[in-house]
Design a protein that fits this description.
Elements lengths: L6 H14 L3 H12 L4 H8 L5 H40 L12 H4 L1 E2 L1 H15 L3 E2 L5 E3 H4 L11 H4 L14 E3 L5 H9 L4 E10 L10 E11 L4 H16 L6 E8 L2 E10 L9 E10 L1 H6 L8 E8 H9 L12 H7 L1 E2 L13
Parallel strand pairs: 2-5
Antiparallel strand pairs: 1-11, 3-4, 5-6, 6-10, 7-8, 8-9, 9-10
The structure holds phenylalanine (PHE).
Amino acid sequence: MAETIDLEELQSELLSEIAAAKDLGALEQVRVSALGKSGRVSAVMKRLGSLPAEERKTFGAAVNAVKTRVSEALDSHKTILESAALEARLASEQADITLPVRPGPVSEGRIHPVSHVMDELAEIFADMGFAIAEGPDIESDDYNFTKLNIPQEHPARQEHDTFYFHPDSNGERLVLRTHTSPVQIRTMLSQKPPIRIIAPGRVYRCDSDQTHTPMFHQIEALVIDESTHMGHLKWVLEEMCKAFFEVDEVKMRLRASHFPFTEPSAEIDIGAEAIGKPGQWLEIGGCGMVHPNVLVNCGLDPQRYQGFAFGMGIDRMAMLKYGIPDLRAFFSADLRWLRHYGFSMLDVPTLAGGLSS
Ligand code: PHE
């Protein structure tokens, strides 16, 4: 029976199958069909048991020789296919490092001028020892008005064009904050003097035309100490303007005005020559010494403490510094506008490196 198996033919068949395998997958199939548990070589091996003892030895040795030969052929062909696969992969995954860098999110993305100006101002005030404070956009009537010395029937409430929420079951109504001044209240209620904070953020007024949008940005500043006076206020404003407009001299004036939460109060004007419009004054915000009633409302003794506050329009300052003519374009989400006026995200403003470079 054993004689009917032609080992040489089996071997030459298997070797030519191996040589014909075009890839590693095909080669593996050949291996399984030859040496696998129910492969052809294994099948021949199984017959050994049924042979007479004297034949078993020579036949066994012959089958083993076939097995070894086939294994070697499998191994060497595998090496050849593997290096061919590697060559192919190296060729297909080749990177041409001479190509110019493709623009990615870091170079394509732009920081909105408002965000950039906020960063610039944060940098300027941090340098003067101010911390950043925050408050919510949805504010209580009490913090937005009453504690700021604007009681229920005060005419200043009308001037603010407030967005009111529906009153709750206690009759209290929340508002979209009309200015960042409620952050003054929050700060004085939660911190002990000396206080030196700025609070940038969104504010809302029901107003919309070429120079007004229903949402805009302000930055508030508050300083409370035991010997603070208007001279400090004016110095801080002047230093801020010089640093912000990146000039050595800036013409600035405080024009007497009125806010319920400051006394005295003033409007801050800057000479527009700083931005190439000589002879004009531009209003950038309001300021004053914190009204004693506001201090009392926050549990501070006005005999001991006093301080100043100011609030400025960030959008207005961005327009002035970067020569942006239309306020509405700030919020129209026009990508072309953002590409033109926006800032690279790697351009983080620092006093040392230049704010707007
Ligand atoms: N909150 C005032 C406004 O929005 C600005 C201001 C802030 C004035 C702080 C004085 C002091 O018009």
